[in-house]
Amino acid sequence: MGKVVKLNLEHGDFSQGFQITLEIGDESLPHRQIRTGGSLPANLQVSANYDNWKTTYRRLETAFRRPVILEEETELLPPVSADECQVLFETLKGSLNHWLNAEEFRRVKEQLLRELDEDEEIRVIIRTSEHNLRKLPWDTWDFFDEFPNAAVAISPTEHDVGTPVKPKNKVRILAILGNSQGINIARDRGLLENLPQADVRFLVEPQRQEFETLWSEEWDILFFAGHSYSQGDGDCGYIYINQTEKLAISELKNTLKRAIKKGLQLAIFNSCDGLGLANELQRLNIPQMIVMREPVPDKFAQEFLRYFLESFSSGKSLYTSVREAREKLHDLSDIERRFPGASLLPVICQNPTVLPVKWDDFLAKKKPEVKSESVESVEPPILPEDKQTIPQQISPEQSATEDKALQVSPPGKKPIGKLIGIGVLGGAICISAISGWLWWKRPICSLNDNRIPFMINIPQGQLFNYGGSTTWVPLAQPLHEQIKTTLQDFQLNSPKYSGSVEGIEQVLGGYFAFSLSSTHLRKKDLAEARQQGYELIQKPVAIDAIAVGVNPQLNVPSLTLTQLKDIYTGKIRNWQQVGGPDLPITPYSRAPEGGTVRFFTDAVLAGQPLNTQIVQFVDSTTTGISKVSNDPGGIYYASAPEIVSQCGIRPLPLGLPGKTAIAPYQGDLVPLESCPQQRNQVNLTAFKSGEYPLTRNLFVIIKDFPGENNAQEQAGRAYTNLIVTGKGQAMVKEPGFVPVAQASCPSP
């Protein structure tokens, strides 16, 4: 089952920033949704960088294109180089990602990382009516590097419920081949004619009255190839239907509305500058479209169509097909070398009330033939050996009675005795099957459970090394002991806790079969793995939080993440600057190589390094807590379970600027004099909901060898699967982490 992510940017602009609502739900279960809020700060640079790239790209593209008929491009502009365009596109990508890494957006991004799995197909829908947001290359967001099966679409904020698919014997496609001056439309026609199980009708440079077929007949897909353009801020779009006539979508409003109501599901405009076309068609409530955000070279449009139709007609989803087509264009053609940024121009426009259509959805399903059989011909079900009923010995008297019953039964009817026997046997089989199903569905609450060998593929006959994050110790150590005593076939060396970053390096170096991490994989990690012939994947198995602690005597009620950032970068040096006493601040931290520090610099410092002139580094969290407990101005951060329950350090509530600070502990703070008889407990509810502003996932880093039966991959997956059992998730809760799956078993 896939996931659908709706990122709603409903209010604001680049000069003021945007308010955001995030919705995450299962693809086929729209009622099961997770919602959270956030914002993006003002950033005029992103929009300006897009305009700079667009101007250069259009000049570059126009210079290579054959003469066209668009009035707005008749002016000859001085030539530019592809290198100049490439620099501007990289600048645009960098500014977009910097914006999406803003502190105000961090909670939204963390919720995404917490709830999504990189192995599942993910649809990300950007819902906005702001034209400057609709035209951005959202595909360059580094989120899509971490989730290779995710793809993006844009959507308006207002829409009606879409029309369902009406399956037919063939996929009905109306292909409009408009003004072809300077472009090779014959290639598009050939690609459409070769589609399987398709009925394609072509309107070649049609007159307006020929669109009557769109009015009167039912169509699944509308295709257009030719010249087109958008006007203004993408408010309207025009297509050139023949050598002398252009039409605005609004001029076909009634015809298109009727076609959509009769089942039109997908419009593909394999033509230039289509956001205006999309804007008008979305107002008419079309379920989905594919358009080009900017003008495109003719060869590019043809190759995109070829790659897209190959994937889509073979049964892949609309989103996967578009992403694959773009990636093939990027890697297998010279399009990016000649026109930097062009491979990301195709964009899906989606009505979020409908599921994206697949090729097979258009086709009526053949009903299976049902053969009529007599009762006598039905074989009894074959049960597994341990579930079969052992027949009892029958006495001669019983045998004689049964024979007599057989003799007196009316012709053509089953003997009553035999029917009773069949009923008893059927009932026993049914009860046995139900009991077996209930037994199989029960949570696994012990690693001694005899279902584990059937559910989890545990590699045997090999000893595996693993380890990594020190944050994992209170979970990994008891789990290791459990595996050692109850699953002796799963042979694991004692884990080595050298830190998340080093653990990933040990996996890449071949020493670890898998690693335990409190931070995400980086692009360089993924690239290095691919060079070695495999993929690295990260499986979230628990949720952790970062807590910040100060000296118990320090009178500071809370901090914002901005204040925390300024403390560790050196901008704030005295507690008086955040409402505390006139006292110098001493920030403590683990060494920068650890996973917790990496997460902290990404999430809090927005990628800036720790200020090594003022930060004092410690070798362990135990040392850090000790330092702060003896330093009136000290501050330290670590995993919440390591901080919250300690007596010598006071955990601080944290919040976003202008928002209520949330404590990392439950209820009221336990007074110092009551500790250790009473200790603070971690705020699992706030961590799970994302209300606490500094949470993260704990991952198992696994090697993935596509198509290979690799023992190291099996070991990583087996370890991960053990953690997400009921027993494993109960163990997750014990040290103060949040389960990612239902923890229906009692804690150890």
Low-pLDDT ranges: 66-76, 369-420, 428-433
Strand order of the largest sheet: 3-2-1-4-5-14-13-12-8-6-7
Largest sheet: 11 strands, mixed
* Structural class estimated from helices and strands: alpha/beta
Features:
D-Maltodextrin-Binding Protein, domain 2, 25 helices, globular, 3 domains, alpha/beta, Nucleotidyltransferase, domain 5, Rossmann fold, 27 strands, single chain
Q: Can you tell me about this structure?
A:
It is a single chain. With 748 residues, the chain is an alpha/beta fold. It folds into three domains: 3-155, Nucleotidyltransferase, domain 5 (2-Layer Sandwich), CATH 3.30.420; 171-362, Rossmann fold (3-Layer(aba) Sandwich), CATH 3.40.50; 458-748, Periplasmic binding protein-like II (D-Maltodextrin-Binding Protein, domain 2), CATH 3.40.190. The chain contains 25 helices and 27 strands. Strands 3-2-1-4-5-14-13-12-8-6-7 form an eleven-stranded mixed sheet, with helices on both faces. Strands 16, 18, 19, 21, 22, 23, 24, 26 and 27 form a nine-stranded mixed sheet that branches. Strand 10 (236-240) and strand 11 form a beta hairpin. Helix 10 packs across helix 11. It is globular, with a radius of gyration of 32 Å. The model is unreliable at 66-76, 369-420 and 428-433 (pLDDT under 50).
